[in-house]
Amino acid sequence: MLRGTLLYLADRRSIRHFVTHNRLACRSARRFVAGETLTEALQATRTLNQRGFTVSLDHLGENVSDAAEARSAAQDYIEILDAIKQASLDANISIKLTALGLDIDAALCEENVRRVLDRAKSYSTFVRIDMEGSAYTERTLALVAKLRQDYEEVGTVIQSYLYRSARDIESLIATQTRVRLVKGAYKEPPEIAYPRKADVDRNYEQLMCLLLARGNYPAIATHDPRMIQAAKAFIAANAIDPSRFEFQMLYGIRRDLQEQLIREGYNLRIYVPYGTQWYPYLTRRMAERPANLLFILSNVLRQ
């Protein structure tokens, strides 16, 4: 029930407006969102690099309804790539297809993505195409498969709460497409997604083992200590070198665990979001895992 409530709130514009204009909420969000400007995000990236972390930058925004806005979003991503290169930062980017016009026209979206990938290819910088709600899953994977014919620098995300994900991961492994594995953060019907957390976790572990054994540099994105221990156990049992994969975690969440993984010699990439549209992102992160909600609330109360 809590998860459903949070996902409902994520899409309520009136609540979004109130929260994003509340000074306390904005100040609290800064723990988990690296500011509203690229300059702030680059500074956060530089600091993380100095501490041994790599970064995936995400300029928050989705579901644009205007072609000019979609082209502008593509230009924003290109400018991020330029800035990463100019600052010699160890970072890549994550992009959302609905920010690039997928709701408007598939051809427009592909054109915009190719613009971004052309620049990324010139820098040998990786681009992750984020996964959104299930209404976009098939179209996202189809476009990724098409783009992989021309770009090695592109990968995607698979959500373990969807029944279809094992089949999708097998297809992505076959084409050596890089995958970030997450549990999923959108409200989905039980006809297509596991409604019980225990089943989502069980599927996550199974998919994680598939990727660790046969995937192309998979990203194991989790803050769940049990899942991390399961990954470590599988790695040890199968003599998998830590250079073959990376863990990923969210900016500002479980910094203690992040530091521990670095000390233990694992690759760890921090997902660093920034921008003015932080409310839906933060609400979905709370819905994704109740521990995140408690952690965020505890930080708000300390303000």
Describe the structure.
This protein has 303 residues and is an alpha/beta fold. It has a single domain, classed as TIM Barrel, CATH 3.20.20. It contains 13 helices and eight strands. The protein has an eight-stranded parallel β-barrel, surrounded by six helices. Helix 1 packs antiparallel against helix 12 (278-288). The protein starts with a helix and ends with a helix.
Keywords, separated by commas or semicolons:
TIM Barrel, alpha/beta, 303 residues, 53% helix, 13 helices, 8-stranded parallel barrel
SSE topology:
Elements: H1 2-10, H2 13-20, H3 23-29, H4 38-50, E1 54-59, H5 67-86, E2 91-95, H6 106-123, E3 127-129, H7 137-148, E4 154-159, H8 165-174, E5 179-182, H9 197-214, E6 219-221, H10 225-237, E7 246-250, H11 255-263, E8 268-274, H12 278-288, H13 290-301
Parallel strand pairs: 1-2, 1-8, 2-3, 3-4, 4-5, 5-6, 6-7, 7-8
Mean pLDDT: 88
CATH fold-level topology: TIM Barrel
Helical fraction equals 40-55%
Task: Please identify, by name, the CATH architecture.
Answer: Alpha-Beta Barrel
Number of H/I helices: 13
Element order, helices and strands? HHHHEHEHEHEHEHEHEHEHH
Q: Return the domain count.
A: 1
Low-confidence stretches: 1-10, 14-21, 299-303
Q: What's the CATH class, please?
A: Alpha Beta
Rg on CA atoms, Å: 18 Å
**N- to C-terminal distance:** 28 Å
Spatial strand arrangement across the major sheet: 1-2-3-4-5-6-7-8
Specify the overall morphology.
globular
Coarse structural class: alpha/beta
Please describe the biggest sheet, giving its number of strands, its sense, and whether it closes into a barrel.
8 strands, parallel, barrel
Kindly estimate the percentage of residues that lie in beta strands according to DSSP: 5-15%
DSSP E strands, number = 8
